[in-house]
Amino acid sequence: MTELVIKDLHVSVEDKEILKGLDLVVRSNECHALMGPNGNGKSTLLAAIMGNPKYTITQGSITLDGKDVLSMEVDERSREGLFLGMQYPSEISGVTNSDFLRSCINARQESPISLFRFIKEMDKAIQKLEMKPDLAHRFLNDGFSGGEKKRNEIVQMMMLKPSIAMLDEIDSGLDVDALKIVSEAIHDCQKETGAGLLVVSHYARFYEYLNPTHAHVLIDGKIVVSGGKELIERIDSQGYEWLEKEYQVSA
Ligand code: ADP
Ligand code: MG
Ligand code: MG
C-alpha cells in the first residue's frame, strides 16, 4: 500500500500564492477526481507534487509512505513511484521513445530490463493504446499529433508502473474513440498495478470510465468540497456556481 499525503500545502508562482493550504491523501487503488474552474491551481498542485522548479513551496508537506517528497529531486520522485501525465507533453528530438523509456526503467531497478521483456511490454502498451507500431523508434513526441502525445503519456505510465499516477487533462482534445481507448488503458493499468490515481479533468464522461472513488473541487487554492461520484454528476449538470452559495467561496 502506498500513501501520498499532502498537508497544508501553500505554493507560489512568481511570488503569487496559488495554493493556499491544501490537504489531500491518495492511496493505492483509489482514484481521485480533481475538478474546479480554470485557473484555480489544479495544474499547480500536480506540478508541485512532481517537483517542477517554477513552483515554490512556501508552507506544508508532501510525503510518500512517510518519506519527504519535497527534499527529493524530480528524478528521485519518479523513481519513488510518482508519475505525471502532462497536459502539454514536451517534444524531445534526438531521443527515441524506446531509449527514453528504457533509461527511465533502468534508473529504477538494480539490473537493466532485458531487451526481450522491454520490447514485449512496449508492444503491449502500444497495442493497448492503438498506436502506430513505429512509435518506439520515433523521437519522443516529435511531430506527434495532440492525441498521440496524450496516448504516449499513458504508454509511459504502463511501462513505468507508478505507485501514484497524476494525470492532467489527459483527456482534452481526444476524440470519442480515443477517449475510450485512453481511459480503458488507464483503468486496466490501475487494476494491474494497484496505482493510486489523481486525475484532473473537466469531463464526467472521462470519469465514468475511470470510476473514481473520490472527487474534490479546488477553488482559490483550496479543496472546498470533497465527495464521491455524485459530486462529479452535480458539477456536470450544474457547473460550479452552486458552490458559491453553499460553501461561500468564489471561483
Ligand atoms: P488550473 O490547472 O486549475 O486551471 P493552474 O494551476 O494552471 O490552474 O493556474 C493557477 C494560477 O496560477 C493561474 O492564475 C495561473 O495563471 C498561475 N500560474 C500557473 N502556472 C504558472 C506559471 N508557470 N507562471 C505564471 N503563472 C502561473
Ligand atoms: Mg490546469
Ligand atoms: Mg487561485
TrEMBL record:
KW ATP-binding (keyword) present: yes
Cited CDD domains: ABC_FeS_Assembly
Gene3D superfamilies documented for this protein: P-loop containing nucleotide triphosphate hydrolases
InterPro entries: ABC_transporter-like_ATP-bd, ABC_transporter-like_CS, FeS-cluster_ATPase_SufC, P-loop_NTPase
Keyword terms of this UniProt record: ATP-binding, Nucleotide-binding
Keyword Nucleotide-binding appears in the UniProt entry: yes
NCBIfam families: sufC
Name the UniProt record assigns to this protein: Fe-S cluster assembly ATPase SufC
Gene that this sequence comes from: sufC
